[in-house]
Amino acid sequence: MTVREIIKKADEAYPNVFSFSQKAGWLEELDNRVFSEVFSRYEDSEEKFTGGYCEDDETELLIGKPYDDIYIRYLVMNFDIVNSDMVRYQNSAALFNSQYIAFGNFYNRTHRISSAVIDPH
Q1: What's phi and psi for 94, nearest 5 deg?
Q2: How many CA atoms lie within 13 A of 116 on its CB side?
């Protein structure tokens, strides 16, 4: 999905007052994290992170189906923390973390880790 599609889905499901650029920034933050923590560790990873998710950016986000709802979970988690709604934040953070771990586990099972990541010592 694209930046625009994810933000539209999040806005429809969770009405909010945050600007498109703020939400795009959060999505860029998550893709940077995913690239650094997951994709960059694997030899056969074809994903590239370039950043620059601007308002009319139709950039495809890094995580595809069936895990792409992780982006909505991340946006909602940020909505909740910025709004100082700690009860909702704890719930949305738990949902995000669960989905992030599931994605990482799936990727780990289906890709070959880079030999540069393996430390023999």
Answers
A1: -65, -40
A2: 5
Give residue 56's identity as a one-letter amino acid code: D
Does the global pTM surpass 0.85? yes
For range 75-103, the mean pLDDT: 97
Residues in contact with 74: Cβ distance below 8 Å, sequence separation at least 6, in sequence order: 26, 27, 30, 96
Q: Does pLDDT of 101 surpass 90?
A: yes
* Rg (the chain; Cα; Å): 15
* Number of Cβ atoms within 10 Å of the Cβ of 84: 8
User: Rounded to an integer, what distance in angstroms lies between the CA atom of residue 31 and that of residue 109?
Assistant: 20
Cα separation values, 7 from 38, 43, 66, 75, 95, Å: 23, 31, 17, 8, 18
Q: Residue 85 gets which letter from DSSP? A: -
List of long-range contacts for 1-5, beta carbons under 8 Å, 24+ apart: 1/60, 1/61, 1/64, 1/68, 1/71, 2/57, 2/58, 2/59, 2/60, 2/61, 3/27, 3/53, 3/57, 3/58, 3/59, 3/61, 4/56, 4/57, 4/58
